[in-house]
Amino acid sequence: MLLYDLELPDIESLLKEWNEPAYRARQIWQGLYQHLYSSPEQFSNIPSALREKLGGEFIFMPFSVKTYRESSDKSTRKTLFQLADGNLVEAVLMRYGDPADDHKTGNIQSVKRKTQTGGQITDYESRITKTRRTLCISTQAGCAMGCVFCATGQMGFKRNLSSGEIVAQVMYYAQMLKVQNETVSNIVFMGMGEPFHNYENVMAAIDRLNAADGFKFGARRITISTVGLAMQIRRFADEQRQVNLAISLHAADDDERLAIMPVNKRYKIEDVIEACKYYIEKTHRRVTFEWALINGVNDTPETAQKLAARLKGLLCHVNAIPLNPTQGYDGEATDRGRAQAFKEALEKAGIPCTIRMRRGIDINAGCGQLAAYAG
Ligand code: SAH
Ligand code: SF4
């Protein structure tokens, strides 16, 4: 049994069966999620007999590290994990800025953000630091959604990850960062797989990472990216988590979207946007629409205008990123000039847009490039 699959009450009832005092469960929980222990020997506050039993009964890490690669500028690190059944998944650490800089004045920015309360959009100030340690985590081995431009989609679906297998990817990097006196600042579910196709396990993982007496990772620093499963977007809205939501749209016309994203057979663009409206009404949170800019396919100012018309009135913004190359798709990335024109056309029509930097391309760790066979 994988220890990260368990909630604190699960550990409590197990220890009760073992006739151990109840407080031991909390010690184990805190060892895992506050001290970031990764093996039984590290639990020095627990008697050695119990430590041995823990080691015998539980799996601490559900995978071995098959390979890891670091980008040439050292800012991006991709790890390939081999799960117990041989399946491979990947997770990426992206470093932005140097933590030492945070302590120098001027590197902590005060930014204006928009929020919506009771239909009113207001500005509020929030302080952010430039330093970030963002983890991009996988939720499935492979993916069933088959988006043609995505390496994970090209490999097909293998299986869902358990909540503990998802949590373990975060803990692996948290343990690594701890050695360097650093911590995880953001988690994005943008690795392999479709998070809303593994809904329960992803939410259980988030709740475990969130637990007040455990890892205490704030929901607001977590982002889920979905291909647009409208039913789950509504469910997610009803559950009122503080987690950020990103929707992979990539086309403003149903036929064009269907040509690159088979999911559009099941949920039309309008279904996705209606679900987003519902989400925004329920949560007052801003939605991000992701847009991989593909040369000549979805990157003209006319397409930007179509998109703007679709998104009009929604509390949202568009995150555009030039397509990353994958083996199975011959579409090309939009160049800087065309990307800028797309952004300007969108913004002119009232939809905020940012163009994201491409990261980790030299190690195939960019968006949509995570696939176990890519190495
Ligand atoms: N399954 C989820 C999350 C994983 S993909 C989703 O699709 O949203 C994370 C993001 O990378 C998505 O926005 C996805 O559309 C995008 N993406 C996939 N392949 C890409 C590629 N080759 N270049 C750029 N972005 C890509
Ligand atoms: Fe799956 Fe997301 Fe890739 Fe589409 S883009 S195949 S949903 S991982």
Q: What does this entry look like structurally?
A:
This protein has 375 residues and is of the alpha/beta class. It folds into two domains: 3-57, DNA polymerase, domain 1, CATH 1.10.150; 63-363, TIM Barrel (Alpha-Beta Barrel), CATH 3.20.20. The protein has eleven helices and 14 strands. It has helices at residues 8-17, 23-33, 48-57, 151-155, 163-179, 199-210, 230-239, 254-260, 269-283, 301-311, 336-348; strands spanning 63-70, 76-83, 88-96, 108-117, 120-129, 132-136, 140-142, 157-160, 186-189, 222-226, 244-248, 287-293, 316-322, 353-355. Helix 7 runs parallel beside helix 9 (269-283) and helix 10 (301-311) runs parallel beside helix 11. The protein is elongated. Residues 102-111 and 115-128 have low confidence and may be disordered. The structure holds S-adenosyl-L-homocysteine (SAH) and iron/sulfur cluster. S-adenosyl-L-homocysteine binds at residues 149-150, 190, 194, 225-227, 248, 290, 292, 321, 323-324, 326, 367-368. Iron/sulfur cluster binds at residues 143, 145-147, 150, 152-153, 193-194, 227, 248, 368.
